[in-house]
Structure formats: C-alpha cells, structure tokens
Amino acid sequence: MKCYDCLQEARRDTEEIGICSRCNLFVCADHALVIRHLVHQPNGLGRATSRLPARRLVCTTCRAAETSATGGDLAGAGQN
C-alpha cells in the first residue's frame, strides 16, 4: 500500500509503515508520528494507570488536529 499523504503530493516512491489510529489511512515514515500515552483502566471506584506508556501511530494531519483542539500537547502524551 501507498501513503495517502504522499499520493496527495504526487509522490509514489514511499511505502506505508502503518495505519493512523485516528483516520485509518496508510502513512509512511515521513507522515507518521508514534505517540506515547498513558493507559487508564477502571479499577473499583477509581482507575488504575499503567506505569508504562503505550504507543499509537497517528498521521501528521490528525496530530495537528489533536494538538490544536487542546491548545498544545495532549496531557500524558509525548513524542517518541
């Protein structure tokens, strides 16, 4: 498969490395970001937070939309 953003730029030389967890489009290494985030699970009346952050792949377009909606970097998220 080919990266969606690269196809929009008329570049056909890149291969996808994964699928954006937001928009589900194929992305290449140039248009992908691996985001670390904390995992929260219900635990009785509260919630338990994992000590180790999980990771998810997002495209640069979705990441820009996420950070513009919150006015900055998302809480608990940092780039790898």
Characterization of this structure:
The protein is an alpha+beta fold and about 80 residues long. It contains 2 helices and 7 strands, in the order αββββββαβ. Helices cover about 20% and strands about 30% of the residues. The strands form 3 sheets. A 3-stranded antiparallel β-sheet has the order 6-3-7. The chain is elongated.
Q: Strands, helices and their partners?
A:
Blueprint: H1 4-8, E1 18-19, E2 26-27, E3 32-37, E4 40-43, E5 46-49, E6 54-59, H2 60-70, E7 78-79
Antiparallel strand pairs: 1-2, 3-6, 3-7, 4-5
Please give a handful of descriptors for the protein shown:
80 residues; alpha+beta; three-stranded antiparallel β-sheet; 2 helices; disordered C terminus
Q: How large is the share of residues in beta strands?
A: 25-35%
**Shape assignment:** elongated
Helical amount: 10-25%
Q: Give the total of beta strands.
A: 7
Could you tell me the radius of gyration in angstroms? Answer: 15 Å
Number of helices: 2
The chain-level structural class is alpha+beta
Largest sheet: 3 strands, antiparallel
Q: Low-confidence stretches at least 5 residues in length (pLDDT < 50)?
A: 74-80
Distance between the termini: 24 Å
Provide the succession of SSEs. Answer: HEEEEEEHE
Average pLDDT figure: 83
Output the strand order for the largest sheet.
6-3-7
